[in-house]
Amino acid sequence: MRQRHLVKPASRLTFLQMWRCIIHAALDMRQNAKNSCSAPKRFAQGKPLGRQESQPVSEPKPFPGSQREKPWQITYFGPHYLALYSTVLFSPMETGWEAEFVATALRLKAGARILDVPCGFGRHLRRLALAGYRPFGVDLQLAYLQFSQRLTCQSDSGPVPVAAADMGRLPFPSETFDAVANLFNSFGYFPDDPGPDGDQTTNSKVLAEFARVLKRGGRLLIDIANRDDLVEVITQSPETRCAGEDWEIREKWRYDPETKRVYNQTLFRVGDSSSRCGYDMRLYTRQELEAELRAVGLEPWRFWSQLHRDADETSGDRLTMAARKP
């Protein structure tokens, strides 16, 4: 089947590109843009890491049923994801614009306490710290938190504080933060059903934890896939490939309309090392996400179709929403 490649100028990347459909030509354009453009002064750029030699790689193999030997969080967000997303798949310029958007969209004052959850390897933490805010990062992956500490030690105030924790069980007192940022498709990985014992983390429980740690008047920014747009792409291209000089990502996609979840199988290859992994994630429409936010006591108050400083409600293909805690 013919795969649809999406190539746009580096200054206006869309969600569909970021959703593992970045091709080598797009990366070349990004590199050229970095030579001629700069991020906003308050959100300074970083430097990419080195690369490894290129080696051939086989097609991704399907999982046996739905069982995996290790939790998907460990296998998918492992060293291969970190190597690729911290070096070639995110430009410092774009990260700077995203961090600027968080602060301006939520109308945050200087010194505001911002929880970035999950923070990954800290690319937004550093920009927020440099801009004069007080970010705090939470993620399950210790290796990512260690990376973020090295990355953010370049800020004037030293490394940004981080903690290893589950999004559904945040280790903070109630009403701790002025803002919570949940960015780049980091919501929807848990089930909707709490299980027979009622103690399983659910997507609703994650939102309830976000609401709990927000101060009165605090604000949440959540940035996820727009279900209709993503399903359209999956229908047209159920198998995707992204590749560079010495790396490759091959993926297979399947959407289940009954569970409203997308199922993914991925092969990462960096140099001569490869990893097979995958995940499944609940997808939402704007109306469904607004209902979920209201159910945990948050009031949706603004919507954008991109995570970008020039975002509006119609020109993009993401589901980016802000909500208030009354």
Task: Give the helices and strands, then pairings.
Blueprint (H helix, E strand, L loop, with lengths): L14 H4 L5 H13 L35 H5 L2 H7 L6 H14 L7 E4 L6 H8 L3 E6 L2 H11 L9 E3 L12 E6 L20 H11 E12 L1 H10 L2 E5 L3 E10 L4 E10 L2 E10 L3 H10 L3 E6 L13 E7 L2
Parallel strand pairs: 1-2, 1-4, 2-3, 4-5
Antiparallel strand pairs: 5-11, 6-7, 7-8, 8-9, 10-11
Which properties best describe this structure?
Rossmann fold, 29% helix, alpha/beta, disordered N terminus
Averaged pLDDT: 80
Class by helix and strand content? alpha/beta
Count the beta strands: 11
Determine the number of helices (DSSP H or I, runs of at least 4 residues): 10
CATH C-level: Alpha Beta
Q: Could you give me the name of the CATH homologous superfamily?
A: Vaccinia Virus protein VP39
**Succession of helices and strands:** HHHHHEHEHEEHEHEEEEHEE
Portion of residues in helices?
Answer: 25-40%
Euclidean distance between termini CA atoms: 50 Å
Q: How do the strands of the widest beta sheet line up side by side?
A: 3-2-1-4-5-11-10
Enumerate the spans where pLDDT stays under 50 for 5 or more consecutive residues. Answer: 1-68
Please indicate the percent range of residues in DSSP E strands (runs of 2 or more). 15-25%
Major sheet characteristics: 7 strands, mixed
Number of separate structural domains:
1
The coarse overall form would be: globular
CATH architecture: 3-Layer(aba) Sandwich
Q: Compute the gyration radius: what is it?
A: 19 Å
Task: Assign the CATH topology.
Answer: Rossmann fold
